[in-house]
Amino acid sequence: MNIIFDLDGTLLNTLDDLAASTNHALRACGYPARTTEEVRQFVGNGVGKLIERAVPADTTAEDMERCLTYFRHHYADHCLDCTVPYPGIQAMLSELHQQGIAMAIVSNKLQPAVAELNQRYFAPTISIAVGETEQLRRKPAPDMLQQAMRIMGATETDTIYVGDSEVDVLTAQAAHLPCISVTWGFRDRDFLLRHGATTLISTPQQLIDYVNLPINR
């Protein structure tokens, strides 16, 4: 079996750093700040969409791009300030790695940030990390999952996708993969169920249990 993970809200709690960079950019442009809970609802479709949702409704495209530039510069320097793996993640990845499970990360974050975060936190167990580039459409398009699968030598029949949002549910559907939705991330259980999630887990250990079910071996 192969497992592809979303990053933000699934493996890493990046919310505080995303909120800090969002508000840095908003302040630099003279816009009102957003609460961390607001930013939680804005993430999932890449940083461009995050800023589009965070700026005032009447913001011009030019000013939105300026705000996005402030965000990118700040986040490049501060993406590791508060970001940490969720409890139990490292132990889960180590156990899956020991079982011979091939793993990868896909994320709507920019590729340099995805590579840096993977190298810092997950390099011993995950070597494939696919982020936003000009060549790959962002999730929920299936491009990133398909790219990771090509690198892994994986197929639709031996791969599952693990994420925390409605975007991840749609991405798995587009790639014809089963989706495991986690409830410890940026969306809660009720929200996920309303948006099409069918298999949910509330702890990293439950993913190990799922993988080890006889039907999945």
Describe, in plain words, how this protein is organized in 3D.
The protein is α/β, with parallel strands linked by helices. The protein has 2 domains: 2-13 and 84-216, HAD superfamily/HAD-like (Rossmann fold, 3-Layer(aba) Sandwich); 15-78, DNA polymerase, domain 1. 47% of the residues lie in helices and 16% in strands. The protein is built from 10 helices and 8 strands. It has helices spanning 15-28, 36-42, 47-54, 61-78, 89-98, 111-121, 143-152, 166-175, 189-194, 204-211, and strands at residues 2-5, 12-13, 84-85, 102-110, 128-132, 159-163, 179-182, 199-201. The strands form 2 sheets. Strands 5-4-1-6-7-8 form a 6-stranded parallel beta sheet, with helices on both faces. A two-stranded antiparallel ribbon has the order 2-3. Strand 6 (159-163), helix 8 and strand 7 form a beta-alpha-beta unit. The N and C termini lie close together (7 Å). The mean pLDDT is 94.
What is the multimeric organization of the chains shown? single chain
How would the global form be characterised?
A: globular
Strand order of the largest sheet: 5-4-1-6-7-8
Q: Would you identify the CATH H-level superfamily of the largest domain?
A: HAD superfamily/HAD-like
Q: What gyration radius follows from the Cα positions, in whole Å?
A: 17 Å
- Continuous helix count: 10
Decide which structural class fits the backbone.
alpha/beta
Biggest beta sheet attributes: 6 strands, parallel
List how many beta strands DSSP finds.
8
Low-confidence stretches: none
Summarize the amount of helix as a percent range. Answer: 40-55%
Question: What's the CATH C level of the largest domain?
Answer: Alpha Beta
Instruction: Give the name of the CATH architecture of the largest domain.
Output: 3-Layer(aba) Sandwich
N- and C-termini, Cα separation:
7 Å
Count of domains:
2
CATH topology-level fold name of the largest domain: Rossmann fold
Mean pLDDT: 94
| Strand percentage | 15-25%
Can you write the helix and strand succession as a string?
Answer: EEHHHHEHEHEHEHEHEH
